[in-house]
Specification:
The structure holds two protein chains of two kinds.
Chain A lengths: L5 E2 L2 E2 L6 H8 L2 H9 L4 E6 L5 E4 L1 H6 L15 E4 L2 E9 L4 E8 L1 H29 L3 H15 L3 E5 L6 E8 L5 E6 L9 H5 L8 E2 L19 E7 L7 E7 L6 H36 L13 E7 L10 E6 L8 E8 L3 H19 L5 H14 L7 E10 L5 E8 L5 E3 L5 E3 L3 E2 L10 E2 L1 E5 L4 E5 L1 H4 L2 E2 L5 E2 L1 H10 L6 H15 L8 E7 L8 H4 L8 H6 L8
Antiparallel strand pairs in A: 1-2, 3-4, 3-7, 5-6, 6-7, 8-9, 8-13, 9-10, 11-12, 12-13, 14-27, 15-16, 16-17, 17-18, 18-23, 19-20, 19-24, 21-22, 24-27, 25-26
Helix pairs in contact in A: 4-5, 4-7, 5-7, 8-9
Chain B lengths: L14 H12 L3 H13 L4 H21 L5 H21 L8 E7 L5 H13 L3 E9 L1 H11 L3 E5 L6 H13 L4 E4 L8 H5 L4 E3 L2 H10 L17 H8 L1 H10 L1 H4 L8 H24 L3 H16 L4 H12 L6 H14 L1
Parallel strand pairs in B: 1-2, 1-3, 3-4, 4-5
Classes of the chains: A alpha+beta, B alpha/beta.
Organism (chain B): Winogradskya humida
Keywords (chain B): Cobalt, Metal-binding
Protein name (chain B): Cobalamin-binding protein
Chain lengths: 559, 346
């Protein structure tokens, strides 16, 4: 600037004349005119006594009442004045003078403030969207709703669910506390202004200041700080409200912006809560239907050890085409009947047929306990039911107790993998039975057989999911009957449940986790004779594993 | 061997007691083992102490006895089954009304060590939690379905085998993605649980007591974005885990040349060797996944001890490692991990 020659308000180009420049600049009125023309507020001060020498027009407009000769009192670089925010900068001019340059940044800061608020709002809604849609569990979604509301909208949040049987469930969270849940009687809902309307789906009641007395004592915990403002917003759901959101603040009322944000949040929360409610209803229905399709809890008849294991292919409902069941002895049919089978196909459709088969057999058992006859009758029943392209394979066993703790098992197969028998000496043999599958031809051929189990011996019924499990080190091999026999032989001396668990583990390791097909197992075991405890005799009993322990396993298998 | 009188030692502090109990469990004496524990409970010993100071350490001893080849695998499994029944007896005698939240307790997919987790489940139940115990080997989709249906306050996930860490990670991420925080435990997460945090777990507990304290005082943790820790592993991990079958098959084809005694292997021995090689591959993959050699060297050290106890020379293990290394020349990280393993194996 100092290089611009100024003369009489006009500007001439060319090199400046040094003495002319100095003389012009020293003219006070020209100097003032130049400073007054500046949009920046400038206050010129004397350095020795901090008095104001000159106030330009912009400064006078910005901060009225500044007069030359007065003491300047500016210190901070940001100055609040009359509701405006000024930013100031002090610069040294020469040894005797300095100046304050002031700028009004009120609007700028307001914009920045708005921008920050908008960003926080977006981040909040983004987080809300992500967390609310994560779960299909209603309780979890409700908790997330109050957590988000307390983190971003209010000091306390309560969600009240629609009235069911004259009661409303609620969940609430107070800042710094933990979530609480409970139930309210329908009659007290009207004590919160606007709550009944919100649960009825009417638009939100405008926020208002409340007397503390207007908030019923049950709404917030007794030790919570007094409520300053309350906002009740409906949570919109599927055609009917999913509930109401009550927000409470200790201090300031809810602004229009707060209300708008609360409404957007409530829309998202409401959708998530409604979806979770729908899922819950479906799960409840499915669970009722599923209960009859899942493998039963096995009875434990005297002198017979029964161990079942069912592993559904990786679907969520845990139901499939494999099944097993046990029918306890009745006066007409003194044998305990076990059945394990496999219906062609997978998923719910197959499961429904397994349910029918199990029910048919259960009824049949009331009048009949010969496995061969049961298979034949079942075959005719399936064929006459008219449903085509569905067949099944299964093994039926009729168990009776024989002398000396032995079991006698009459087995018949309808086209199913033949049960394996683990003898006390560790040998494994297949039951000598044959038969055609069920539900295809009107007359089936069945060759049953009876096997005896000595105490500690096990007969294993299984579905082909076990032997056909693909995996192994190369990923493509079937586990196969040879490995099953080998594994079963390795279970010698184990309790029945440990043996079944071990087979499950081996096949799961074989397929490397990804079981593709249902696997069902049912082990029938004659309980080992109870040994005398060494505590009673004072003599160390020989462990049934003593020989094993001496021989050890020499094949160096890492687990 | 000490032979006890008809009553046997009665106190947990009695140094002979744990040996006595181990023998009962090892002999498959369910009745005797249950009675021993029932006596302790009757004498006023807290059920937590019975589980944590008796049943759990006994189970640890059982594992050691198997590793040292003193017990057969059948005996190990039978003893574990007895421990389970003793635990069930403890549980049946100590009903507790739930006062805290609900928690799901499970082993990760491919993890079969259910007993420690069951002890955790019972300990939490005694502390007032409503516990859903899903047991061993829970596939991820089943776990997540359960979470949607029950909406618990926490999932406690156990992983005892480091090779299952990639699956543990998938489970942790899945749980956190549906908004349920995860507390982890088990040796598989490394010394001091050092890999738990990397896999995104909200917490790690050294044992059941620790888990109870953690869940009672600092729960739930502040929610964070589950996808911040959702991606681990690199192309080397992907290569090794995707080509697991090929790596093992090729190694088996070259086995005879590298390790002449293998020529005499029968089918069973052949299968066992292939399984050992797949395990080595799994641990290699896990080491690459979490980016820590320790995953691999720990496993090699343990395997060496197990093989040693069964009279298998270390050259067999070294041969196996070399057979894999020969196929992974182009993968510097995998080669480096195998080299640390070779040092440990030699």
């Amino acid at each position: 600037m100092s290089q611009l020659p100024i003369q009489g308000g006009t500007r001439t180009l060319g090199p400046p004349a040094p003495d002319l420049l100095r003389a012009d600049l020293l003219r006070a009125d020209l100097l003032r005119a130049a400073l007054d023309a500046s949009r920046e507020a400038i206050i010129l001060c004397a350095a020795d006594d901090d008095t104001i020498v000159l106030v330009n027009a912009a400064a006078a407009a910005l901060v009225p009442g500044l007069d030359p000769g007065a003491l300047q009192a500016l210190e901070a670089s940001t100055i609040e004045h009359d509701g405006r925010r000024l930013k100031g900068e002090r610069r040294r001019l020469d040894d005797d003078h300095y100046a304050w340059y002031l700028r009004d940044c009120t609007d700028e800061e307001l914009q920045a403030e708005k921008f920050r608020a908008e960003r926080a709002r977006t981040a909040f809604l983004d987080e809300a969207g992500r967390r609310l849609t994560a779960s299909l569990n209603q309780r979890r979604v409700l908790r997330t709703t109050v957590e988000l509301a307390v983190a971003h909208l209010a000091d306390a949040a309560v969600v009240v669910l629609p009235v069911r049987r004259r009661h409303s469930e609620w969940i609430r969270l107070v800042s710094g506390g933990t979530t609480e849940e409970g139930t309210l009687r329908e009659s007290v809902l009207s004590e919160v202004p606007g709550l009944e309307e919100a649960l009825g789906g009417f638009p939100p009641i405008p926020s208002r200041w409340l007397d503390a007395s207007q908030v019923p004592a049950w709404l917030l915990p007794g030790d919570a700080a007094p409520v300053g403002a309350l906002l009740v917003t409906p949570l919109p759901g599927n055609a009917e409200p999913a509930g109401a959101l009550i927000l409470a603040r200790h201090g300031a009322a809810f602004s229009a912006d707060d209300e708008a944000l609360a409404r957007i949040f409530a829309a998202r929360a409401g959708a998530a809560i409604a979806a979770a409610a729908l899922y819950r209803d479906q799960v409840d229905t499915a669970a009722i239907l599923q209960a009859d399709l899942l493998p039963p809890e096995l009875p434990q008849p005297d002198g017979i050890e029964l161990i079942g294991s069912y592993q559904a292919a990786r679907d969520a409902l845990s139901i499939g085409g494999d099944f097993y069941d046990v029918y306890e002895a009745t006066p007409a049919s003194p044998d305990t009947i076990v059945v394990l089978g496999d219906v062609c196909g997978k998923g719910p459709e197959a499961a429904v047929l397994t349910g029918k088969i199990r029910q048919t057999l259960r009824a049949l058992h009331l009048v009949e306990d010969d496995p061969e006859v049961m298979l034949s009758v079942l075959n005719r029943a399936l064929l006459s039911s008219g449903r085509q392209h569905r067949f099944a394979t299964m093994v039926i066993g009729a168990i009776s107790r024989a002398e000396h703790g032995r079991l006698r098992v009459t087995l018949a197969t309808g086209g199913h993998p033949v049960p394996l028998i683990l003898r006390t000496d560790g040998t494994v043999e297949a039951a000598p039975i044959r038969g055609t599958l069920i539900g295809v031809v009107p007359e089936i051929t069945v060759q049953p057989a009876t096997v005896e189990l000595a105490p500690g011996e096990t007969c294993l019924l299984y579905s082909d999911g076990l032997t056909e499990a693909r995996g192994g080190p190369t990923g493509q091999d079937q586990w196969g009957e040879a490995r099953l026999r080998d594994a079963l032989a390795g279970c010698r001396g184990m309790p029945g449940d440990a043996a079944v668990e071990r087979l499950r583990q081996l096949v799961s390791d074989w397929v490397h986790g990804g079981v593709r097909d249902d696997i069902a197992m049912l082990a029938v075991r004659a309980p080992a004779r109870t040994r005398l405890s060494l505590m009673d005799t004072g003599v160390a009993a020989t462990s049934p594993f003593a020989i094993d322990a001496r021989r050890g396993e020499r094949r160096g298998r890492a687990r | 061997m000490t032979v006890f009188t008809s009553t046997g030692p009665r106190s947990l502090d009695d140094p002979g007691f744990s040996e006595h109990f181990l023998r009962l469990v090892g002999d498959g004496d369910e009745w005797g083992a249950v009675e021993a524990v029932t006596d302790l409970l009757d004498a006023g010993v807290a059920p937590q102490r019975v589980m944590l100071d008796l049943i759990a350490p006994t189970q640890g001893r059982i594992g050691e006895l198997w590793a040292a080849n003193e017990w057969s695998i059948a005996r190990e499994h039978a003893a574990t089954a007895i421990s389970e029944r003793v635990l069930a007896a403890v549980a049946a005698r100590t009903p507790v009304r739930p006062t805290r939240g609900r928690i799901t307790v499970a082993c990760v997919d491919g993890e079969w060590h259910a007993l420690p987790v069951r002890i955790l489940a019972e300990t939490l139940r005694l502390d007032g939690w409503r516990v859903d115990f899903l047991g061993a080997n829970v596939p991820g989709p089943h776990l997540v379905t359960h979470l949607h249906q029950t909406g618990p306050d926490a999932v406690a996930l156990s992983c005892m085998i480091t090779a299952r860490l990639p699956r543990a990670h998938a489970a942790i991420t899945a749980c956190r993605s549906v908004g349920v925080p995860v507390i982890t435990g088990g040796r598989g997460f490394g010394p001091d649980g050092r890999w738990a945090h990397r896999l995104g777990a909200d917490a790690w507990a050294a044992g059941a007591d620790d888990a109870v304290t953690r869940l009672a005082h600092h729960w739930p943790p502040a929610p964070t974005d589950p996808y911040e820790t959702a991606f681990l592993g690199d192309e080397e991990y992907t290569h090794v885990s995707r080509n697991r079958g090929v790596l093992v098959r090729t190694a088996m084809e070259n086995l005879r040349a590298a390790y002449p005694p293998a020529a005499d292997y029968d089918q069973r021995r052949h299968d066992a060797t292939a399984e050992d090689l797949s395990q080595i591959t799994d641990f290699l993959a896990a080491a690459l996944y979490v980016g820590d050699d320790l995953v691999f060297t720990d496993f090699i050290g343990w395997t060496r001890a197990v093989l040693d106890a069964r009279g298998v020379p270390p050259t067999a293990l070294q041969a196996g490692l070399h057979l894999l290394r020969d196929q992974l020349h182009d993968f510097p990280a995998a080669t480096a991990v195998l080299d640390t393993g070779l040092l440990k194996a030699g």
